[in-house]
Amino acid sequence: EFATDLGSTVGAGVSGTIWFAGLVGGVNYVVVRATGGMLVTHGRLREAYVQTGDTVTLGEPIGQASERLYFGVRIDGRYIDPLRCMAGGTSVTRRAILVPAPSAKSASGTS
Fold it and tell me: Which strand (E) or helix (H) includes residue 88?
């Protein structure tokens, strides 16, 4: 899990097809299935922007963050350390993108 700014946009950590988008125990999760048997889970989302079956590209907005983001990677059913993937240059990159939420000032259009 990673600390996030409430309301930040969460981008897909990998390109692929949305394998699952929905609630698990009352919490939003989005799982992207990439080629090669990789599943990337983005969990603890405040809101999901995608639906099961949608196609997404790396970094495309898939949801809105709560205070923490679960980010899990499975290859052929085995969990691997997501930090290892992020540093290793695989198709999962540091761009499991978190875009900062606009501040109250900028959101209202005042400076």
Answer: helix 82-88
